[in-house]
Amino acid sequence: MNTEITIHPTLQHCGLTTGDLDGMLEWYGKVLGIAVNKRVPALPGSPFKTVAFASNDQVNHRLSFFETTNLPPDRDKDRHARVQHIAFEYDTLDDLLGTYVRLKNLGIPLLWAADQFIQTALYYEDPDGNIIELNVNNFTNDWTVTEQLKNLPSRMHVNIDPEKMIAARKAGASAWDIHERALAGEFDPTASYELHTTRW
User: pTM higher than 0.85, yes or no?
Assistant: First the structure.
């Protein structure tokens, strides 16, 4: 038994409280393909009504949802200590952009999008106002991204319009070309993103 050296555990899941479990499960199902593996009444004496354990991969649960009666969404989150966002990674730019189109067709609005040098990221807001990031690495592997992060240029990110990126991809541009063109400002949004919160 090692008692001296720090073991590096893997981040397994996040837990969210909500006053609308069904609404949250529906949203996460649409956005991330989350499926409920177990839904149970909370233990007697617990502050929660129902608990649901959900995942979109082989891990038993990536997200756990704790439903509390009469718990409204916190629209004043920016004034509280909180989790700023939770991120999910895609394998390819096509997967990320295809997801953008799919969610747009489902009526799920994009909050904000950016090329952040090391990654391209889309941001969405769940029914309780939690920010969910969907991203893809702009470099070949995690080790390269880590080294790039250590030497991040002063211009960390450029806002982007996914529609313009999709058009470029359909015209034959590679993912790397799109990244470079984004940093050059070619895919800037026509209008500024109107972030209705100050959580950034």
Answer: yes
